[in-house]
Amino acid sequence: MRRREFIKLVGGAAAAWPFEALAQQPERARRIGVLMPFAETDAEGKLELEEFVHQLEALGWTVGQNLRIDFWVVLHKAG
């Protein structure tokens, strides 16, 4: 292999490599934080969370694929 052919081969691969790397990257998952004012065992609260996730799926967001949801329970203590 001649020197010029080798330089063309290496230069062409180096120029194409960034585009291949970008094309192979998966879609970035978005993250949502949800503060819940009810206990995790609350039946009505579970229904509301299910409906929330269902509405997100209707918009094209899928938990575990392109979406992550973090839930936190925040209970107010009367004092």
Secondary-structure blueprint of this entry?
Elements: H1 3-23, E1 30-36, H2 43-58, E2 67-73
Parallel strand pairs: 1-2
Walkthrough of the structure:
Helix content is 47%, strand content 18%. The chain has 79 residues and is an alpha+beta fold. It has one domain (3-73). Strands 1-2 form a two-stranded parallel ribbon. Strand 1 (30-36), helix 2 and strand 2 (67-73) form a beta-alpha-beta unit. The chain is rod-shaped and about 80 Å long. The relative contact order is 0.17.
Notable traits:
18% strand; 47% helix; two-stranded parallel sheet; 79 residues; alpha+beta; 2 strands
Quick structural summary:
The chain has 2 helices and 2 strands. With 79 residues, it is of the alpha+beta class.
Structural class: alpha+beta
Order of helices and strands: HEHE
Spatial arrangement of strands, main beta sheet: 1-2
- The proportion of strand residues reads 15-25%
Q: Overall mean pLDDT score?
A: 79
Rounded to an integer in angstroms, the radius of gyration calculated over CA atoms is 24 Å
Number of helical segments? 2
Unreliable stretches covering 5 or more consecutive residues: none
Q: So what's the overall shape?
A: rod-shaped
User: How many domains comprise the coordinates?
Assistant: 1
Q: For the terminal residues, how far apart are their CA atoms?
A: 83 Å
Fraction of residues in helix: 40-55%
The total of beta strands comes to 2
Question: How would a textbook summarize the main sheet?
Answer: 2 strands, parallel
